[in-house]
Design brief:
3-stranded mixed β-sheet; 5 helices
């Protein structure tokens, strides 16, 4: 099984107008000899990509590429006074504008077993989101995701996969991507529009799954300019100088990769800046599985 790995090295990132992240800002949810669970901020890649900014080390002032994996590696080097390489691997990725729980492995054994857990869909994942419009009650979305042999294109503000020819045929595969949601509260904005705070639960993790399915439902994630129709101006007004959408990975349950393999649960609290116009000081948002508490 292929496991993505990263051995830390100091690299020099390119300057960006986006805010600079510092290693001291890293939010550690849980750590032991095999796991490092982080609360990723919005605007940061989960692992190295094409886009780079700056991470400034408070220890030596050197710059690092703008991704959580580099961030975590340098954190471990500082904490454990490592002079050489350290092993750290991301088990689950979040889109750049999404915040919340990212599980990292600190050993190759843990990385391999975590990859198996996520591949076999034995992980329970829950999210908190603010969506456009007034959404009421609980529901399930099973449509809105389709896989094509082809490549990403963009049309009308929505990305889709263009079907490509395989011989003389075109193959279109419907993916199994059930999404459960539960509406928590709604808020009327100054312009008269509504926003709804929702809990979301999925087993799968297809590319942009939640963003695509909520848009399919008619309630795109607030701030999502890719699937949220033409709300670019609203996103700039709500979140100036930020690369974020109102989607947060809040809860995750997985079997520990080492030892007796007992289930362990993690919760990433919401920042008040997530959506300042709505009361997010709700006990059930930071006390475990929202869906178990509400018996959804």
């Amino acid at each position: 099984m292929l496991v993505k790995r990263f051995f830390s090295s100091v690299s020099r990132g390119q300057a960006s107008s986006r805010p600079k992240f510092r290693v001291s800002d890293l939010k550690v949810v849980y750590e032991d000899n095999h796991l490092l669970v982080l609360n990723k901020p919005s605007g940061m890649l989960s692992q190295p990509g094409l886009s780079r900014s700056e991470i400034i080390s408070p220890v030596n002032g050197r710059q690092h590429s703008d991704n959580l994996l580099s961030y975590a590696a340098h954190y471990l080097r500082i904490k454990y006074n490592k002079t050489g390489n350290v092993f750290v691997s991301v088990a689950n990725r979040l889109d750049r504008p999404v915040s919340g729980l990212v599980v990292c492995a600190k050993t190759s054994k843990a990385a391999s077993r975590l990859a198996q857990e996520f591949s076999a869909r034995r992980v329970s994942k829950e999210y908190i989101a603010v969506v456009d419009g007034e959404l009421v009650g609980d529901g399930v979305v099973e449509a809105g995701i389709t896989s094509y042999d082809g490549y990403w294109k963009q049309r009308g503000g929505v990305k889709y996969l263009r079907a490509s020819s395989i011989g003389n045929s075109k193959r279109k595969e419907k993916l199994d991507g059930e999404l459960k949601y539960t509406a928590l509260q709604y808020h009327m904005m100054p312009d008269g529009s509504f926003k709804t705070l929702v809990g979301i639960k999925t087993k799968t993790g297809y590319k942009h799954q939640i963003r695509r399915q909520m848009a399919y439902l008619g309630h795109p994630i607030t701030g999502d300019t890719l699937y949220g129709k033409n709300n670019t101006e609203e996103a700039r007004e709500l979140f100036p100088h930020q690369d974020k959408i109102c989607l947060h990975a809040s809860f995750l349950r997985i079997r520990h990769p080492v030892g007796k393999r007992k289930p362990v649960s993690f919760v990433a609290s919401l920042s008040k800046r997530f959506f300042p116009w709505m009361d997010l000081d709700l006990p059930h948002l930071s006390s475990g599985s929202l869906f178990q508490q509400r018996k959804v």
